[in-house]
Amino acid sequence: MILPYLQNAGGAAKKYVVSFRGLNYGEDWQDGELETCTNLSAEKYPCISQRAARVKEADYISPTTLHAKEGLLVIDGTRVLYDGENVGTVTEGRKQTATIGNYIVIFPDKKYYNVAAGTFGNMEAAYTAAGLVFTASTITTTGEDFPFKEGDAVTITGCSIAENNKTPIVRGVNGKTLTFYDNTFTEGTESGSVTIKRSVPDLEFICESNYRLWGTHGNTIYSSKYSDPMNFSVFDGLSSDSYYIDVGSDGAFTGCIPYSSHICFFKENTLHKLYGSKPSNFQIVTSNVYGVQAGCERSMCIVNEQLLYKGVDGVYSYSGGVPELISGKLGTVRFSEAAAACDGTRYYISMKRGTEWSLFVYDVLKNIWLREDDTHAVDMAFYNGYLYYLDAAGKLYKIDREADRDGIEWSAAFCPFHETINERKGYSKFHLRVELEAGAWLSADIRTDQDTQWREVYTTHNQRAKTMSIPIVPTRCDSVRIRLRGKGECMVKTFIREFTTGSDV
Predict the structure, then answer these.
(1) Residues 6+ apart with CB under 8 A from 85
(2) Helix (H, G, I), strand (E, B) or coil at 163
(3) Contact 380/298 with Cβ under 8 angstroms?
(4) Which long-range contacts (CB under 8 A, 24 or more apart) does 241-244 make?
(5) Mind giving me the DSSP string for 17-36?
(6) How confident is residue 483, by pLDDT bands cut at 50, 70 and 90?
(7) Residues with Cβ < 8 Å from 280, sequence gap 6 or more?
(8) What are phi and psi of 235, to 5 degrees?
(9) Angle at Cα 211 formed by Cα 105 and Cα 304, nearest 5°?
(10) By CB count within 10 A, which of 380, 392, 406, 455 is most buried?
(11) pTM value?
(12) How far apart are the C-alpha atoms of 496 and 177, rounded to whole Å?
C-alpha cells in the first residue's frame, strides 16, 4: 500500500521589512517599528534616515519667549529683542504673545511692539491731574497733553461730581482737550486729583482672530474692539464693539487659539468654541472633551488643517469634532510642559517626563512618531520657511534640511523580533541594505533572549559613498533585538531576516 507523504511542519522562512514605521513604546508593535531611536527622520520614508541639521543662530542669557511676525521677537530675561535689536523692557517670567495688524502684544505686561513704526509701549494709558475743567462734552487740562486717541474708552475716577465718574468714549483729541458726546458730563472744575485711564484686562492667554485680540481672565472671555487691541470697553452698539462673556465650566483656562470658523478656548477637560463675526451673533458652544494640559498652551499648532495640542493623556488632533488621541504609539508615558511648532507637515514637540526632556517629531502625513534627542525647547516658531527653537541653555537654533548632516550621531533599536508564532524557531541570518555617505560610520548590535547586554556584531566606516549589504548572524535564540548606531548620513533601505521553525516542544 502506498502511503501519503507527510509534510514537514518546520522549514526555512524569510521576512522582509520594507517600511520603517517609527516609534512604538507599547506592546502591539509591528515589523519595522522602533522601541527607541535618536536623531532619525521620516523624511525618506519608508527608509530610515537622519534628522535635519540644526544651525545655531544666536546666544541669549535666559530666554523665555519666541515669536515670529516679519522678524523674530525674543524675550531674554527682561529684554525684548526684535531681529536682534533691543526694542523694549518687560518683567521677568513666562509671556504670552500674539500678532494683530502691525502690533505684537505681550502679556501679562500689557506691552506692544509696532513692527511698522518700530515703537515699543504700554497698551494701557493713564492721565492724573488736578484742575481739570469739565463741560457737557469736553475735559480740558492745563498740564501735559492727553495720551489718548479718538475711539478710546476711558474710565474716569476721583471726581467730586459723582456723575462724572464713568467710562465714556473719546470722540476727539486736541492736545489738552478731550471731546465726548453732548451731555456726557456735569459742568464743573475739579480742584482735586482726577484719573483718566484706558484699561486692558489682565489676560492670562491670548490669541488673534478676525482682527480682534481675544483672551481669558478667570472664567471670562474677552475681545478687544475690532482692529484696536488697546480697547476692551467700547460698547457703542456697533459691530466693531468690544465683547466679553462669562462661562460656567469648572477649572481654569489653559489656552486659546483660532481654528477654522471658530475660536477654541480650552480647559483641561472642556472646550468652549466661540462662533460668530460680531458681538450681536457671537455664541459659545461647550464640549466636555480632553483639552489642553495646564502649562502646555505652547503645544497648540495647526498642521495640515488639524489642530494638534498636548492634553493630559497625550497629544490630540482636533478637526472640529471630538479630539482624537494620536500619540498612542508613545504608550502610557505621561509628559508635561510641552512646547511645539510645525514646518508644514511635521509637528515638533518638546515635552518633559519627570526630570527628563525629549524632542519628538510627528509626521502628520505618514502617522509616524520619532524621538530626536533630549532637547528642552522653551519656545518654538516657524519663520521664513524654517522652524526655530529656543533651548533652555539660551541658544536659538534653526532647523535646516539643506545644511550638512555629517556630525549627527543617530541610533535605531528595533522592537523585538519573535514572529508571533508558537513553534520553536532559530534565526540564521539578518541582511541590512544601507547607503552610507562619505565619512559616515555604522555599527550593528544584537541582543537575543539569552543575552543581558548588547553585543556589537558589525561595524564599518566609509571613505567614499557606497551602498552595501550587511550580514548579521545571531546565536541560537527564540527572539532577537537589533540596534543600529552611526554618525553621518546613512539610509537603511531594506531589512531581511531568515529563520527556521520547528515543533511546539
Answers:
(1) none
(2) helix
(3) yes
(4) 241/278, 241/279, 242/153, 242/279, 243/279, 243/282, 244/220
(5) E----EE--SS---TTEEEE
(6) very high
(7) 239
(8) -130, 85
(9) 90
(10) 380
(11) 0.92
(12) 84
Cβ–Cβ under 8 Å, residues 48 and 37: no
DSSP 8-state class, residue 277:
S
Q: Which three cell numbers stand for residue 406?
A: 555629517
Amino acid identity at 137: S
The grid coordinates listed for 362 are 510627528
114 strand-pairing partners: 103, 119
CA 215 to chain CA mean position, Å: 18
Does residue 482 have a pLDDT over 60? Answer: yes
Q: Is pLDDT at 445 greater than 80 in this prediction?
A: yes
What pLDDT score was predicted for residue 504?
A: 54
Q: What is the largest CA-CA distance in the chain?
A: 129
**pLDDT for the residue 15:** 65
Percent of the chain with pLDDT strictly greater than 90: 77
Write the single-letter amino acid at 304. N
> What are residue 316's DSSP bridge partners?
309, 325
Reference 221, options 281, 274, 291, 290; nearest CA is 274
| Strand-pair partners of 56 | 397
- Is 90 exceeded by the pLDDT of residue 497? no
